[in-house]
């Protein structure tokens, strides 16, 4: 099995965490998006990461890949069994992908990607606006959702993976959740990132 995509991507990181939780061995190929590698493009025709190659089967998109892996390697289960818990886990997966990711990645783009890979200056005003005006409403929401070590059903699941994966990019940009304002969220993110599966994903090659 091969997984294509740099571990700098929170979406690639999601899949790496799932693979580690399930104990599935994978060859990680840390390509960036739109890489011309023909095997990568066979799995991801539009050049997006991550992409998976499993024998003669190829698939792109982190959520699709995780659904595939959950059926292919069902233990330990990362999708809840009950209808309500499953619905909430999918909701948090969507929240992580479409609401959290675009904002958590803004400081990372400005402070890491622009100067390192684009030869462009950082826009600190954009970082300040993101941290001061855009992210707080999401942090407020998550603070109110956390009442234990995990988001759904009292056990680690896709919900936790999808919500927390982007916070590493925030940390790479030198920002973090204000523990004084959002104590539950701050402690929750720190604890999830310390899981062995997340530590393995964070140490994966960036490319």
UniProtKB/TrEMBL annotation:
Residues 82-207 form the GST C-terminal domain. The keyword Transferase applies. The keyword Transferase applies. Residues 1-77 form the GST N-terminal domain. Keywords: Transferase. It comes from the Bacteria. PROSITE patterns: GST_CTER, GST_NTER. GO terms for molecular function: transferase activity. Pfam families: GST_C_3 (PF14497), GST_N_3 (PF13417). This is Glutathione S-transferase. It comes from Methylobacterium variabile.
